[in-house]
Amino acid sequence: MLVSSLIGLGRIFDQDSAHNLDRLLAMTGRNLETLGLDALRQRKEAFITPEQAADYVKEKHEITAADVRQLRKEVDAWRRIYAPVYGEIRHHLAHNKGARQDLDALLAKTNIEEMKKMFAFLHALHEALRELHRRHRARLAELFREGLAVAAAEGRGMVLARRSQDDDHSARRQAAWWGRNGHSWPQD
Known about the structure:
single chain, mainly alpha, 9 helices
């Protein structure tokens, strides 16, 4: 599991990986209109009336290039933590190079609390982007900080999803739409 985690972190943070966060944030920056309020309104119209959808987006936040730049800064800060310690271990494991003593010396530099915070950061980033796409509930940076605060308060590297009143209200509206149209509510 340790090897898989470190290989996964490499894919996320290494600049030459096809799956890194820089590419994700670049796609986000290039597709701001997909995350815009008009796109959100159109997605909501699949579940509620156009008038309700228009009312829904009035209070929502429009993502900006500045939001994406701020997230890039956060990613860069974590990359500077990842690269000298965890990146070296990942490269050692991925390329099967060096002796066991070399690996032991690299592993001695790790810090479990630091890894928990790194995973909390990644989870908070995921949740912030997901929330932005789904509901534009708040500014991206606020969602991100909220996720990190929950992780810190729980003392764990994982952020548990919290359902807000907005989530409950949205779920009730969607369930009503499904019922009005003769469908059963989809199960997760």
